[in-house]
Amino acid sequence: MTDQPEYSNLELIAQVDTWPYYQRDPSAYNEHMKDYYYFMIGGFAAPFGYVHATTISKVNWPKFWTVDETERKLIFDGGDDFTTRAQRMEETLRANPKTDEASAFSGWCDELFPIYTNERVHILDLDGAGVDAFGIVNFACHLNGYVKTDSGIKYWVPRRARTKVSFPGMLDNTVGGSLRSRESPLDCIVREAAEEAGLPEDIARANIKACGALTFYYVYEIALPEDTVPAPFDGEAESFTLMALDEVVSALRKGDFKLDCAMTWMAFLIRKGHVNAENEPHIIEICSRLHRKHDLFIV
Predict the structure, then answer these.
(1) Can you tell me the distance from the alpha carbon of 24 to that of 38, in angstroms, rounded to the nearest whole number?
(2) Pairing state of beta strands 73-76 and 36-41?
(3) How far apart (Å, rounded) are the C-alpha atoms in residues 293 and 118?
(4) Spatial distance between the Cα atoms of 66 and 271, rounded to a whole number of angstroms
(5) In terms of domains, do 229 and 187 share one?
(6) CATH no. for residue 64?
(7) Within this chain, do residues 227 and 145 fall inside the same structural domain, yes or no?
(8) Residue 198 confidence (pLDDT)
């Protein structure tokens, strides 16, 4: 029986940062993009997302949508104002409800998420049912919590519920969730801390520390009192375990964490000096890929 291979720091990041870089290899980028359509909104020159061809074929597109096979564009005539765009987008999603796992859109979730231009102008909200299908850039907040014990600092690590559709039973960041429309990152992570881990709002707001941002994550830490113990609250997690840092790193290398957790943990390890230029020859590339700029463009 062979030992399970361990991932390097760069391999952990590469598992998440999978979209080809046009500047590095235009042919590889174009090959990857051949099955995608550009999600366009009338009145704006740049795309807002990339939609896979299988999604295009599954949806009953209302009259205010145009599928341009030649230019590989999915064009949304959303009207001239925010409200009309939102209404037409909702009509599209509700006209194509999820009936099985092969449906184009996920189930209606009653949570609105924003769509921005490259200049960060907020032009539209859509329900979470359409976020993945339209390939928009969706922002989230991630929090890692720790406690100082007699044997050193330990980190609260949840195990995802086995019933989760994505990454069931895998390890996760202490708390995390998508940033809703018109919600501040701090309000988002405080809300998620209460919903996922049962952390009281007063403790969360008093102790959460902002640690910057990655490509599409706002990153936070929280030092918790020893008598404040995270616990499964909304069914997202099945348990929380205290782990020493070497245990966390070992679990990361074995692939026990949900893939995108590697981004948050790698940023933490660099921020605290555990990963540095002396012990990681690829640190420049890792840092660049942690902060990849995700402007959407047409080739």
Answers:
(1) 21
(2) parallel
(3) 10
(4) 46
(5) yes
(6) 3.30.750.160
(7) yes
(8) 96
Ranking 18-22, 187-191, 295-299 by mean pLDDT, the lowest is 295-299
Residue 28 lies in a domain: no
Nearby residues of 25 by Cβ (< 8 Å), 6 or more positions away:
none
Contacts of 158 (CB under 8 A, 6+ apart): 171, 172, 173, 174, 196, 197, 230, 232, 236, 237, 238, 239, 240, 241
**How distant is the alpha carbon of residue 102 from its chain centre?**
22
Total length of the chain: 299
Question: What's the pLDDT tens digit per position in 75-128?
Answer: 999 999 999 999 999 999 999 988 887 788 988 889 999 999 988 899 999 999
Domain of residue 271 covers 9-16+139-290
CATH number at residue 163: 3.90.79.10
Q: How far apart are the first and last CA of the chain?
A: 47
Neighbour count for residue 100 (Cβ, 10 Å): 5
User: Measuring CA to CA, how many Å separate 224 from each of 121, 142, 221, 241, 247?
Assistant: 36, 16, 10, 14, 19
Q: Can you tell me the distance from the alpha carbon of 230 to that of 200, in angstroms, rounded to the nearest whole number?
A: 10
Distance CA 85, CA 75 (A): 12
Give the count of beta carbons closer than 10 Å to the beta carbon of residue 195. Answer: 15
- Does residue 1 surpass a pLDDT of 50? no
Neighbours of 255 (CB within 10 A): 18
**152 & 68 share domain:** no
Q: What is the pLDDT of residues 212-249, one digit of tens each?
A: 999 989 999 999 999 999 999 888 899 999 999 999 99
Assessment of whether the complete model's pTM goes beyond 0.85: yes
Q: Are 160 and 123 in contact (CB under 8 A)?
A: no
**One-character DSSP codes across 262-273:** HHHHHHHHHHTT
